[in-house]
Amino acid sequence: MSAVIILIKLIAAHLVGDFILQSDKMCADKFSKNKTVRYRALSEHAIIQATLAYLFVAQWTNWVVPLVIGVSHFLIDLIKTHFKRKDLVGFLCDQLVHYCVIVVLWFTAFANHDFNPATEIFSANFWFVTTAYIAVLSPTSVLIKSFIEYEKWLPADASLKGLPNAGKWIGYLERILILTFVFTSNIEGVGFLLAAKSVFRFGELSKAKDIKTTEYVLIGTFTSFTIAILLGFGADWLMDMNLE
Question: What is the pTM of this model?
Fold first, then answer.
């Protein structure tokens, strides 16, 4: 069995810790002017990331993984808070450095070492699919939101329309459906999903007083669909490579 499964598990652990288990309060506390609050939030998040990496990798005698992940996460986030970059550039740079650490750690600790398949409960394909589903939830939502805010495409009254958090959950559901269509080889379902969403949105968009509202919805929708489709085909391609 290829050791690539360890890399996928490290990525999955990072996504869960950075997006699902990291609350808005913790994110805000990282940028607090109060050093005690800031360092506590940074430490808590680093410990969560280290713990998740240790549990996901499940190499119980290997303490290098949680140590490297925990310390690197603390230092990277500390530098990010120092520069106070909360925009798309800050987000992308932060994630890029984290993934570089993960890849280097995996390559040095696992890539060229013997790997015992008997220690694995789930297959590599299971982790590819699971990680893809995790990625299309909160991580994709944060990326899309950062992208739209960075380009200043968010309508001034966007927060006043619709149900609270409805847009977020619509995005979650549509991307889950897209991944499911791709993984089950029913890609035509994506077209029907896009058509159905267009029908439901038609009345709202046709009555929009400002063309910015229409463009905002289209950008969000197509960005969401594109990311989900690329993740689906990417994971599907990796599974077809038979990395077991």
Answer: 0.89
- Read out DSSP for 30-63? HT-SSHHHHHHHHHHHHHHHHHHHHHHH--TT--
1 contacts 123 by C-beta, under 8 angstroms = no
Q: How confident is the model at residue 1 (pLDDT cuts 50, 70, 90)?
A: very low
3-state helix, strand, coil in the chain (%, to 5): 75, 0, 25
Q: Are 139 and 32 in contact (CB under 8 A)?
A: no
> Quick check: 170 pLDDT over 70?
yes
Lowest mean pLDDT of 38-47, 79-88, 184-193, name the range.
Answer: 79-88
Q: Is there a contact between 15 and 137 (Cβ–Cβ < 8 Å)?
A: no
